[in-house]
Amino acid sequence: MAFWLIPVNPTGDLQLSALVAALPVFYLFWALGVRRLPGHTAGLGVLLIALLVAVLGYRMPLTLALLSGFYGMAFGLFPICWIVLNALFVYNLAQEAGHMETIRRSIASLTTDRAIQALLIAFSFGAFLEGAAGFGAPVAITAAMLVALGFAPQSAAVLCLLANTAPVAFGALGVPILVTAQVAGLPPEAVGRVVGNTLPALSIMVPFYLVFLLSGLGGVRRAWPWLALGGLSFALTQWASARFLGPQLPDILAGLASLFVVGTLLWLCGPKENPVGAKSPSLKQALLAFLPFLLLSLLVALWGIPPFKAGLDKILDIKLAIPWLDGAVVRNGKPLPAVFELNLLSAAGTALFLVGVLSCSICGFSLKRGAQAYLKTLRALSLPILTIASFLGFAYVANFSGISLTLGVVLAQTGRAFVQLSPFLGWLGVFLTGSDTSSGALFGMLQRSAAEQIGVDPLILVAANATGGVAGKMISPSSLAIACASVGLIGKEGDVFLKTLGHSLLFASLIAVIVTLQAYGFWFS
Q1: Is 429:408 a contact under the CB 8 Å cutoff?
Q2: Which of 44, 94, 312, 379 could bond to 345 as cystine, CB 3.0-4.6 Å?
Q3: How far is it, in rounded angstroms, from Cα 452 to Cα 206?
Q4: pLDDT one-digit tens code per residue, 262-290
Q5: Cα 233 to Cα 256: distance, rounded to the nearest angstrom
Q6: Most confident of 94-98, 198-202, 432-436
Q7: DSSP-derived secondary structure for 371-413
Q8: What are the φ and ψ backbone dihedral angles of 321, each rounded to 5 degrees?
Q9: Could you read off the pLDDT of 351-394 as tens digits, one per residue?
């Protein structure tokens, strides 16, 4: 097999190479932020530009460039779109059966305060879903639930994207931490502890930040006890779990703790001011309406347990090496694998599909009506599926060609200033790839090498890659596409991008401050 070595500096001048590598990024900011092009148009455009840069700028063989794009698009379809499709199928069934209206009235019977509703659903429940599944499921489900409660679609999308920052690093049972640590050659428990010492500050802040955006200072003053309880219970559980149990469970335990504390106290002594004439559903009606989402939580958590997942993979786990690409591209002396895994049984989307099948029975729908609802959901998602697949194709071209690596190396040339820039490297990696896991795989060893060169504890900068990455998640094109698809804003990805970009940079800057304090011994690390 012929090997192609990724060139870090294809032009011979690192600054010029960085400019060439940044062309797709510049295009994305222009397409989404300036022109506000529909997501599928921007996605296809950035994929084409990345292919041109890879072939013409990096001298990547055309076959390898096209195959890497194909590989990324396949990953976008499965498991990413498989999750989004089935999550929205469950939601649409509940909506069609009238259960979402029952859920709305049930939550309103606890409180009509939009701030507390956003806290419970976008922040607490979303974190639980992120810990159990990740890969877009939390934003897809929680944004749709907020719209059902009467939130404006764009507001719901932005709130859920922002709320999804705090749990991202520990998402999918800690996979981002495990991958980043493995690539960097560091103990995952140690990296997880540093991340667990960094993110709680963000976890406490996010509920207040969400409510300030939603209803201003008045909303914060009105709901501050619940926001403080939700944020503190989440942050303390996240910290303790990361410190004493490892990186697998912080999100699940923290999300459940926040839900339990806030929900219990609301039930016991919270504001229950129902609108005039509103009628709370009966206990039976409420349980029936919530049952699909209770099943969703249980099955997604079950599917996330490694032994259970491994058992399903033994039954059916098809791994297809991408011909002529698998092992043909070499980065840092190591051939990159290109194996498409069709783990149809153990995929989180399959758990959601099973919930959908069970929900048909719960909703009293015939098999025919359920199939019609599924086809309706699929048709509604046709453009978002193209958008997600295109953006993932771009991400994989950037990874396999060296585009992402060049940008990372340029940042690492800044010496001691790299301490402040380290989280932004993780931020950039997630923006480019849509995944904190992929960002860690791409830049984990680079972060360690840079830390050793400038005399900083490698654990701090490797962890900074993961924590900085959480701020990039809200503006990653795939996340924008998922959020917009969930709330019926197809083609409005550019508008949501502009709404979240400033918040993303602010969060990344806050994390950079914490990382700097850690590096110089003024913060727990």
Answers
A1: yes
A2: 312
A3: 33
A4: 988 888 876 555 544 456 788 888 889 88
A5: 9
A6: 198-202
A7: HHHHHHHHHHTHHHHHHHHHHHHHHHHHHHHTHHHHHHHHHHT
A8: -70, 130
A9: 889 999 999 998 889 989 999 999 998 998 888 788 878 877 88
- 330 strand-pairing partners: 5, 335
Question: What span, in angstroms and rounded, lies between the C-alpha atoms of 40 and 357?
Answer: 30
Question: Tens of pLDDT along 158-207?
Answer: 999 999 998 999 987 787 888 888 778 789 899 999 999 999 999 999 99
- Across 212-354, where does the E strand assignment appear? 318-321, 329-331, 334-335, 339-342
Q: How many CB atoms lie within 10 A of CB 293?
A: 19
| Residue 234: closest CA among 126, 162, 159, 144 | 126
- Measured CA to CA, the distance from residue 237 to residue 239 in angstroms comes to 5
Give the count of alpha carbons within 13 A of 308, CB side only.
Answer: 13
Torsion, Cα 453 456 459 463, to 10 degrees, reads -90
DSSP secondary structure string, 222-256?
Answer: HHHHHHHHHHHHHHHHHHHHHHHT-SSSHHHHHHH
Residue 104 tokens, joined = 């709305």
- Residue 339 has phi, psi (to 5 degrees) of -120, 120
**Peptide bond before residue 187 is cis, with ω within 30 degrees of 0:** no
Query: CA 411, 416, 421, 422 torsion: positive or negative?
Result: positive
Which residues have a Cβ under 8 Å from the Cβ of 265 and sit 6 or more positions away?
A: 226, 229
